[in-house]
Amino acid sequence: MLIPVLLSGGIGSRLWPISRELYPKQFISLVDEDKSLLQSTLSRLEGIDNIASTIVVCHEDHRFLVAEQLRQSGMESSTIIIEPDSKGTAPAVALAAYEALKQYEDEDPILLVLPVDHIINNRDSFHKAIEKGVDQASAGKLVTFGVHPSSAATQYGYIRSGMPIDHIDHLFEVSDFIEKPDQITAENLIAKNSCYWNSGMFMFKASSYQRKLQKYAPDILDVCEKSYEKVSDDLDFKRIPKHIFETCRSDSVDCAVLEHTREAVVIGLDAEWKEICAWSSLWESGQKDSRGNVVNGDVITHDVENCYIGGGSRLVAALGIKDLVVVETPDAVLVADKNKVEDVQHIVEQLRQNGRTEALNHTCVYRPWGSYETLVLAERFQVKRIIVNPGATLSLQMHHHRAEHWTVVRGTALVTCGDEEFLLREDESNYIPLGHKHRLKNPGVIPLELIEVQTGSYLGEDDIVRFEDSYGR
């Protein structure tokens, strides 16, 4: 039995302003117009033999995003494990191993561990590498997939191959792991022709991983075991207790286990692989024009060379520039040297320190029931566009500092206001006085769209008192 384990705990700060803390890169269609990075990861598993339901490990803030994207992909039966804090890949995979062994008590399932921010264009080659990995994992080996390097890249770690197991199948023992090198070191590694990029993809039996973790990082396994013993069901999620898990140290699968064991093997992967870790990755993998530019959205250029330019909500015009990244969103614009985009995370950290919401959310904010978009924000009033999915319900709530006025633009709303319950149809409106309990539901089969005007002395999202909530918030 092969169980995919998808690691979806990152926030993608190096892809700001498209990627935000509460809506990060894995949920965005950055490469495939029809699929997010998470959904693309799921789709490339199609056609693999003896594959079971997926386990996804994600942060608490992203649980409803994961659930919705799994639903859209027809994978509602997947298991979602909520990490209260991100502690690296080693603890995340340990939690997945406990869950896999619980689901398949009479088997020792093989885990296929996949980050969700990869592009793999050659699916056949990827599947063949997995077939080789199953054979090795079944024999008790811990498999890592190494990408044949196409350049002396410094944004990836490296795996140095050791004794050959099968030259033809590009299968070797692992000699050692090398952290992200400087340029000279990377060039030397490439010249020796015995190194791979470290893809961060792994395969091993659940029990094999646990045994090695017990041997080389027993403190991590101990915390994860105690955490999993206290796991609770929260709606359709598996919630890990924060007070136990927060004591776990952060570490990666590589550092915690694979660097120490003699049972690690590397399978060479030649599948047109790319990790989407920064804007330079999207430039490298994108469709370039005759002057080496990758453009997305409403963009006009003149005398522009080797740039990545993305327009999100308005026309972007570029003139006489070279080797830049320009990304426009409704509330932020990034202009960066293409060779410095790894440092975008420092901008995000400044935003956090200054309490700026641009680090957390887009102007369009996603909720388990739908989304809302701030259209106008001024002193004492705010205008929002609210979308409620068919059948979805907002919490029964009230506000201490604001009143609200709802006007239905499309669909039908079932409104609770105080002791009354009534329907609002298109072009109809209702006033929610300050301090009144209220609730909004979409009883229809099409999305409900309405305009909300808030007025009051304080308009923050924390001025919500919930009395009932279908989503356990």
Task: Write a concise keyword list for the protein shown above.
30 strands, 473 residues, alpha/beta, five-stranded mixed beta barrel, 11 helices, six-stranded antiparallel sheet, globular
Written description of the protein model:
The protein is α/β, with parallel strands linked by helices and 473 residues long. It is built from eleven helices and 30 strands. It has a six-stranded antiparallel sheet, with no helix packed on it. A five-stranded mixed β-barrel has the order 6-9-7-8-12. β2, α2 and β3 form a beta-alpha-beta unit. α3 packs across α7 and α6 packs across α7. The chain is globular. The mean pLDDT is 93.
Protein structure class: alpha/beta
**Ranges with pLDDT <50 over ≥5 residues?**
none
Distance between the termini: 35 Å
Helix content: 10-25%
Determine Rg (CA atoms, Å): 24 Å
Q: Strand fraction band?
A: 25-35%
Query: Average pLDDT across residues?
Result: 93
> Order of strands side by side in the largest beta sheet?
20-21-22-29-24-27
Q: Count every helix, treating DSSP H or I runs of 4 or more residues as helices.
A: 11
Shape: globular
The biggest sheet, with number of strands, parallel, antiparallel or mixed sense and barrel status, is:
6 strands, antiparallel
Count the beta strands.
Answer: 30
